[in-house]
Specification:
Number of strands: 10
Largest sheet: 7 strands, mixed
Radius of gyration: 29 Å
Helix content: 25-40%
Order of helices and strands: HEEEEEEEEEE
Distance between the termini: 102 Å
């Protein structure tokens, strides 16, 4: 009788099991790598959104020249909004920089009655404060916020170019 060439059933089952184990580990490594890449991308997008918002907030608060009506002081309301007048020639008038906790975003309203413009979304927490006194010309506005998915705070402290009345905190 002649011996037949080929694989036995046991050899085929062993190969299938080995390929299954190798495939499981390969998929685990690929999924871990993809999760890491997606997390890095989200972190980068959050950082970019936060930096753009900080730049816009700086531009807004740098040109504060008073409160929302003539001769009044800017007003910080409950640490979540700043009511002020801007001296920007392109966009003068009463403005509001506000944190909307319900919709998790920071907005700026260019003029009373106009729609709010979104500066940054997915904001977990935000505080807006003021320090200093107009007598020493050292008034500073500080805005600090945290975005969803990041543990880092984004913060900016701005000194207005103009001499203004000491802001009211309510």
């Amino acid at each position: 009788m002649r011996k037949q060439a080929g694989f036995t059933l046991i050899e085929l089952i062993a190969v299938v099991i080995i390929l299954g184990v190798v495939g499981a580990f390969a998929s685990l490594f690929l999924s871990t790598g993809m999760r890491g890449a997606l997390l890095a991308r989200q972190t980068q997008e959050n950082a970019q959104s936060g930096q753009i918002a900080l730049q816009r907030i700086s531009l807004e608060l740098r040109d504060v020249n008073g409160g929302t009506s003539a001769g009044t002081a800017p007003q910080v309301v409950s640490g979540s909004s700043i009511l002020y007048t801007s001296s920007q020639t392109a966009l003068p008038g009463a403005r509001v920089l506000a944190y909307d906790a319900t919709n998790k975003r920071i907005t700026v309203t260019p003029n009373t009655g106009q729609a709010a413009q979104i500066l940054v979304e997915n904001v977990e927490s935000c505080t807006m404060t003021t320090t200093g006194a107009s007598t020493s010309h050292d008034i500073l506005f500080t805005v600090t916020f945290t975005l969803t998915g990041t543990s880092q705070n984004f913060s900016i402290t701005v000194k207005p170019r103009n001499t203004i009345i000491t802001p009211v905190v309510s």
